[in-house]
Design a protein that fits this description.
Blueprint: E1 13-15, E2 18-20, H1 44-55, H2 60-73, H3 85-92, H4 96-109, E3 112-115, E4 119-122, H5 127-151, H6 154-168, H7 174-191, H8 195-208, H9 221-237, H10 241-259
Antiparallel strand pairs: 1-2, 3-4
Helix pairs in contact: 2-4, 5-7, 5-8, 5-9, 5-10, 6-7, 6-9, 9-10
Length: 260
């Protein structure tokens, strides 16, 4: 279904690709649904209200980027595959402009590679790519773990313990374990109080999802990872910043070995 911004006409007062008529039969599609406002009074206040609602919407290309991102993570678009822009436009009911803007977003994140005169491809991870990203993640997350051990409040550490306990309960459900594992790591980063580190790690973790040989797929690695998490959690609760940093480094070293 076409996005409401893409469906706008070109008469009356145009604001951000939306039409606002100063007639009693004002019709504007707002929000993510199809509710129509009919017979609205022709007042400046009404037009401003409708304009504000439209301009507060997230741009279409960001919605398209998120949809493509999820297709890449789900392997509906495999690493290395060519992205058929015409097909996606038809599937999504959009023009090529928002699709190309979405691809630029994914290219910045590293999920898509743009090749001159050939188009866009889902990024394929090399062995060197995997090693380089693991080393960066080890440095950044070890630093965050040390900060949390030293500076987080008792309540924040208890929250982290709760996320770890949830992880302990998901060992029989791989997808749920992956989700709980990522939630733990991202919350630890948030408690590290460094938004630049958090943003960089979030982007690196997106790219890591392209790796065909996920470290936790290796037999026995899930149990090893959980044991590493237990030791890390104990160090954080003991306020052992150096120990937490060392254990996080070791956690990523083991993950790299399993992913190689």
């Amino acid at each position: 279904m076409a996005h409401p911004l893409a469906a706008a006409k070109t008469s009356g007062i145009i604001i951000h690709n939306y039409e606002f008529k100063t007639q009693p039969d004002l019709r504007a599609t707002l929000g993510s649904g199809r509710a129509r406002i009919l017979n609205a009074p022709s007042t400046v206040a009404t037009v401003e209200t409708q304009a504000s609602a439209v301009m507060n919407r997230r741009p279409l290309y960001l919605d398209v980027a998120e949809r493509l991102r999820q297709q890449i993570f789900a392997r509906a678009l495999e690493p290395g595959c060519w992205i058929d822009e015409m097909k996606l436009c038809a599937d999504f009911g959009i023009s090529r402009t928002p699709l190309r803007e979405a691809l630029k977003v994914l290219a910045v994140e590293g999920l898509v590679t743009m090749k001159p005169r050939r188009g866009a491809y889902v990024t394929e991870m090399s062995r060197d790519d995997v090693e380089q990203i693991y080393r960066l993640l080890a440095l950044l997350e070890a630093d965050a773990a040390a900060h949390v051990a030293a500076a987080a409040s008792t309540e924040e550490i208890a929250e982290l313990r709760g996320l770890h306990d949830r992880l302990e309960k998901q060992t029989r459900h791989r997808d749920a374990f992956f989700a709980a594992n990522e939630a733990f790591h991202m919350r630890l980063l948030a408690l590290g109080r460094n938004r630049w580190r958090e943003q960089i790690v979030a982007d690196l973790r997106k790219v890591m999802k392209l790796n065909r040989h996920h470290s936790l797929f290796k037999r026995g690695r899930l149990a090893e990872s959980l044991a590493e998490h237990r030791a890390l959690m104990d160090a954080i609760e003991a306020r052992d910043a150096a120990g937490a940093s060392r254990l996080m480094h070791a956690h990523f070293r083991s993950g790299l070995e399993a992913a190689s």
